[in-house]
Design goal:
The chain is of the alpha+beta class. It has one domain. Helix content is 33%, strand content 30%. The chain has helices at residues 9-25, 56-59, and strands at 2-6, 33-36, 40-43, 48-53. It has a 4-stranded mixed beta sheet. Strand 2 (33-36) and strand 3 form a beta hairpin.
Length: 64
């Protein structure tokens, strides 16, 4: 598992989009993509690239 940590969830999504694009642009690497979710890119070789927000406050809404 490769975990990419960003300041917030929005920036994590951007990081995952860049990673996905890097794999999709390569004819060899694109064959490794098994699935993509909102917070992970799963590769056929068993490697998962996951993104997380550095602060749990950035992931959960604050309560009034």
């Amino acid at each position: 598992m490769l975990v990419c940590i960003s300041p917030d969830q929005r920036q994590s999504a951007v990081v995952l989009d860049y990673n996905t694009a890097a794999f999709e642009q390569s004819p060899i690497l694109s064959q490794l993509i098994a699935s993509r979710t909102a917070d992970a890119l799963e590769l056929a070789n068993g490697v998962n690239i996951e993104v997380r927000a550095a602060s749990f406050h950035a992931v959960r809404p604050t309560l009034p």
